[in-house]
Amino acid sequence: MGTNSQVRLLLWKNWTVRMRQKTRLFMEIMWPVVLFIGLVWLRRANPLYRQHECHFPNKHPTRGESPGLVSNYNTSILARFWVDAQELLFEDIEFLQLGRLWQELVAISNFMDTLRTNPELIAGRGVKVEDILKDDETLTSYLLRDVSLTESVVDQLVRSQIRPEQVTYAGL
Question: Which UniProt keywords apply (predicted)?
Fold first, then answer.
């Protein structure tokens, strides 16, 4: 076996292992990204202070630098970064909706894994289309107005059941 094929096989194996552990892969990608964004934010919040090396500011102690007193922490860069991160991660509605979207994607992924590995667990169970639709859905009006279906056909479509095992094997 040549070196190229060994390297290609090793890369394929690594990719396969990573894809099986989606949470680990997500963290391996997002942790450096979060650190990089934090560093960029810190640099923008506090630009570099350039000073010629032969002149330095005075070393007179300030109120926050007196021995045994750490009162300037609340106004430090790290404290401001922490407050901004908390506002972004825990108070932003759009970010919380991303978390909900992630949970629903995990649920769909688990459902699809069950369909692939143990379809007998859900065979025969159907989901009504009207149970899937939201209260303010526009599917019915779309089918009546734009597709020009009769009310009885639209009613039958909305009340029909979808069986997951039929959907998964439809493409085979």
Answer: Membrane, Transmembrane, Transmembrane helix
Return the amino acid letter for 142: Y
- In 59-92, which residue ranges form alpha helices assigned H by DSSP? 77-86
For residues 132-150, one letter each, b for 16 or more C-beta atoms within 10 angstroms of the residue's C-beta and e for the rest, the string is eeeeeeebbeebeeeeebe
Mean pLDDT over 65-69 rounds to: 54
Paired strand residues for 161: 128
pTM score: 0.32
What's the distance, CA 9 to chain centroid?
30
Question: Token digits for 153?
Answer: 């056909």
Amino acid type, 34? V
Q: Identify the bridge partners of residue 128 per DSSP, sorted by sequence position.
A: 161
pLDDT digits (tens, 9 = 90+) for 74-129: 667 777 888 888 877 777 777 777 777 888 888 888 877 877 787 777 776 777 77
Instruction: Specify the 3-state DSSP secondary structure of 108.
Output: helix
